[in-house]
Structures are given as structure tokens and as C-alpha cells.
Amino acid sequence: MEPSPHTATSNPPVAATAANANLTERDLVRRSASTVPPPARQLEPVAKLIDVSKCIGCKACQSACVEWNDTNPALETNTGIYENPHDLTPDMFTLMRFSEWENPQTGNLEWLIRKDGCMHCEDPGCLKACPAPGAIVQYSNGIVDFIHENCIGCGYCIKGCPFNIPRISKVDHTAYKCTLCSDRVAVGQGPACAKACPTHAITFGTKDDMKKLADSRIEDLKSRGFEKAGLYDPPGVGGTHVMYVLHHNDQPEIYSGLPKDPKVSPVVNAWKGMAKYVGFAAMGLAAAAGVLHSVLAGPNRVTREDEEKAEDLVKEKA
Amino acid sequence: MATTSIEKEDTIRLGKPVVVGRYNLGARINHWITAGSLILLALSGLAFFHPSLFFLTGLFGGGQEARAFHPWIGVLLFFSFAGLFIRFWRANLPEKSDKEWLAHANDLIAGNEEKLPEAGRYNPIQKFNFWCMSLLIIALIVTGLVIWDQYFYDWTTIPQKRVAVLLHSLAAVALICIWIVHVYAVIWARGTLRAMTRGSVTGGWAWRHHRRWLKELVEHHKFKKPATPAE
User: Quick check: B162 and A282 CB within 8 A?
Assistant: First the structure.
């Protein structure tokens, strides 16, 4: 297994890895609406770990994301909530979501802040739903990326995603979401949000390293009375390459609706699986029945006799 | 005898052979707009249905264009079909005699059409296709609006959109099957296509396939003098 380009806090030299051409076509393990040959090399899986317990809600990650990706989220009005903008948008790939939760055990009011964005599922529903060849790809290090020149703007990825992440731009009619800074990772840089985080609530590295880091954090949280602290790496989507350390891992929903057991919807699976086979079978059978009938029964021709009968009938009355 | 199966445009023109007007110019234009939009919708829709057919988007100028045009063509089809529906729904109402006709449907498929009870302007299979088309087109426009994200994204939730996109694809498959039956029937029963091109059929065609309709026309003296002897 080749080491994947990654970093948490350091800035390794860029030139050496750039020449290696990381995260190009040859590192694809999945490509929407198409098949790819198994890649010759397997990059080490990467992950972003978001430790919710360390987050102070400063939104530096959002600013870094806007700056790196050069998006310009529209200025919105203050409606009395902390979220800004109001939701993920085609120009805002990550969003701090704030919720106030009263802990029934302690009676404490807890301010839960979760950095929302693409989870980079191992089994990505968006990619499964996408009808456009090569519009969504997955690299062998786990990053799921949207390739805009192949995107047709149909919104099927929105239906496939169990986390409500992709957004369609009204400007260029293509889908946008967090790229896990694939362009930075390809050259050995960590994601912009991770670099900007002042409390190291966001860290980036190999998935193994991030799991180890999470373990130590969970141990620490448990020692502080958060008995249900744990790692959010949902198996329903094959695990994710963005993981959370949650102090209440038994109830992820309290973190602004983080799904407890996310999986690609059975409706989407039926649409992308059974419906195709049934559909082609039905259309094929209808066409085959026509061909068969025309061979066996031959055409149904109007006879001379029919014409004469009609003429007689009409003559009588006319 | 029921008169509901006669349309205003239906007329008998005397001559050899007898010619029976079946669809006036308006009905034919209406039909071919519907047919054209249905074919364009099937081509663009199938492109999104399965990757092996994605190349069909090339007919529309690319994936983005096919995605953008498809729903608008759907709106055109909806209104165009609504025109056909208003024209023909009356003649497609089920009748008592349809039951007996259907009991003999095997004879039709086996090529023994003379054993069937006389059919009106439409036979029960045509009626079935008509009502299936109508219901499927309603299903398609409703589910289509739900997944028309460009304008109606905020109207529904994501779980609703998932159900809508599944139903949309299944309804489209069913409609394509009905369309195949419709097209095959026209090819099989020779002399049918001219009803939608020239607007008329021969008396023999009417006698063979829609005898009750022909008899009703005669009964009601729906005659028209031949315009030219050549016709």
C-alpha cells in the first residue's frame, strides 16, 4: 500500500508529489455510470476527523473553505440563528450547525456544534445515483469528488445522498460539495478547513491514524463523564472518510440531525437496481412480442371482400 | 345503438373504395406533436435511465441540454396529450359490449377477427391503451414536477423526490411498453397509418376492424360527396 499524500499540521514540500500526479484517472476505484479497471496502486485511505467536543464554533473552517475553493457565498440576513449561511449552498461546502440540547441526565444545557459537509462515504449514494459517466468519482484513498465538466445538473446525487449534502448551482447547473480538498491532498497538503482550525478539532491523516487519535480522544472524554462518547464512522455506508468524535455517540441526531444509521435509501437502490432490470425486461418483452406475433400471425390485411361489404352497406343507405 | 363512438369529423365519402374520414387535420397535428414529443422524451429519458444509453444525450447537444430540455418537452407532451384526451375520451368510454369483445381477444391475436363482436370507433384494447396513456402521463407529469429541481426543488422533501424518481422511471417504462403495443398494432393492422397521415381509412378497413362504427356512420347519414373522383 502506497502512502497517501496527507498531512495534519505540517506543510510538506509540494513539488515532489506533484510530479507523481496523484488523484488522477489512474487512482479511481469508482466512476459514476461507468466501470473503471482496478487501479494498479492502492493509496492509503485518508480521513478527516472532526472532534465535536473541541469545536468552539469560530467558523474559521468555513472561511478557509471559501478562500481555498474561491467560492463567494451570498451575504444573507441574520434571522436570529448562528448558522451562516442558512444552509449548505453551491458556494458553501461546509457549515457549522449549532444546536442547544438539554441533557436530561445532568440538566445541563449543551451547545452542540457540528461541522456539516460531505462525509466521503466508502459506499457513496451520490455516485450510485449519478447517471452521467464520470461526473462523480471515488479515489482509492476514499475521497469522493464531483467532476464538473461531466455533471449534467440532474440532481440525482441529491436523491442518492443519505446526508443531504450536494447542492446544484443556479449559475452553471452542476452539483457542488466538499472535495475534501482533493486538489490539496493530491500534492500532500491537508484540507483547508483542517489547516485553519485553531483548536485542532479538525485533523487530517490516514484513516488508521485518525481512528487512533479518535480512540485517545474518546478515552479522554469518557474519563470526563461522557460515557457514551464514541466515533461516528457509520457502517451503513461502508464507513466514511470524514468522521466525528461525538460526546453523545449514542444519539447522533441531537447534533443537528446527524443520521443515526445512514444508508443509501432502499428506494434509491430499487431505482438503480431492480427498476433497470424490470424496465429493460418489460420493454424488451413488448418489442419481442411484437416481432414474434408478426412472424407467427403475419399482417392483418383488409380484403377485397371487406371493401365490397363496405360498399354494399354504404350503397344501401346513401 | 350508442352514438357516443362517433366523432364530429367522421364522414363517409362515397366511391370505390369507400373512404371514411377518421381524423381531421387538427387531430392529426395534435397527434403528431404528441408522438414527436413522446419520442424525444423517451430518448432523453432513457439516456438518464441507464448508462449504456447515456450517449443518446448527444442527440440533444449533450447531457446538460438533455437534462434541461426533457422536462419542457414533458410539459409540451402533457398539454398536447390533453388535447387528444379532450378529443377522444368520449369515444373511449367503456361499453357493455367491450366485455364480450375482450372474451374473444384471443381470436384477434390468432388472426380470426371475424369471430369478434363488432367494435365501435375504438376496440377495448385501444381503449385500454388510451386510458393507460392518460393515467401514465398524469403520473409522469406529477412525479416529473417533483424531480424538476431547477424550479420546484423546494416544493418537496428529498425522501419524496426519491419515491418520485422511482415512480417516474417505472411509469415511463410502462408508457414505452404501451407505445410499443400502439405502434405495433398500427403496423400489424395494415391500412391504419393513413388515418393519421391522410386522415381517412378505406371502407373495408372500417368494415373489418370497426364495423359498428361504420354502421353507425351509415345509420346517421354521415355522408359527404367525394371531392375528386381520384380520391
Answer: no
CA of A29 to nearest chain B CA: how many angstroms apart? 17
Q: Do residues B204 and B12 make contact, with C-beta atoms less than 8 angstroms apart?
A: no
Show the cell assigned to A211.
481512528
Across A44-63, average pLDDT: 96
Which chain A residues are within 8 Å of B205, Cβ to Cβ?
A: 302, 306
Residue type, position A277, single letter: Y
What integer pLDDT is reported at residue A117 of this predicted model?
98
Q: Is the pLDDT of residue A57 over 60?
A: yes
CA gap A119, A94 in Å, rounded: 11
Burial (CB < 10 A; 0-12, 13-18, 19+), residue A137, is buried
By mean pLDDT, which of A49-58, A102-111, B42-51, B111-120 is the weakest? B111-120
Question: Which CATH code of 3.30.70.20, 3.40.50.740, 3.90.25.10, 3.90.1150.10 fits the domain covering A15-271?
Answer: 3.30.70.20
Cross-chain Cβ contact B18/A133 below 8 Å: no
CA distance, residue A82 to nearest chain B CA (Å): 22
CB B176 to CB A278 under 8 A?
no
Q: Do A279 and B169 touch (CB under 8 A)?
A: yes
Chains A–B, number of C-beta pairs less than 8 Å apart: 169
- Give start-end residues of each CATH 3.30.70.20 domain in chain A: 15-271
ipTM tops the 0.85 cut: yes
d(CA A142, CA B174): 39
Rounded to whole angstroms, how far apart are CA atoms A121 and A142?
8
| Rg, C-alpha atoms of chain A | 27
List all residues of chain A from 139 to 178 with a beta carbon under 8 Å from chain B.
150-156, 158-159, 164, 168, 170, 173
Rounded average pLDDT over A292-312: 93
pLDDT, tens digit, for every residue of A136-170? 999 999 999 999 999 999 999 999 999 999 999 99
Under 8 Å CB-to-CB from A90, ≥6 apart: which residues? Answer: A71, A167, A168, A169, A170, A171, A175, A176
Cell, residue A55: 469545536
CA distance B46 to chain A (A): 10
| CB contacts, 8 Å: A270 with chain B | 166
| C-alpha grid cell, residue A192 | 483547508
Annotated catalytic, B182? Answer: yes
CB B203 within 8 A of CB B13: no
Nearest residue in chain A measured CA to CA from B65: A152
| Residues of A in Cβ contact (< 8 Å) with B206 | 310
Q: Which residues of chain B have pLDDT under 50?
A: 1-2, 231
pLDDT reading at A132 higher than 60: yes
- Is the CB of A152 less than 8 angstroms away from the CB of B12? no
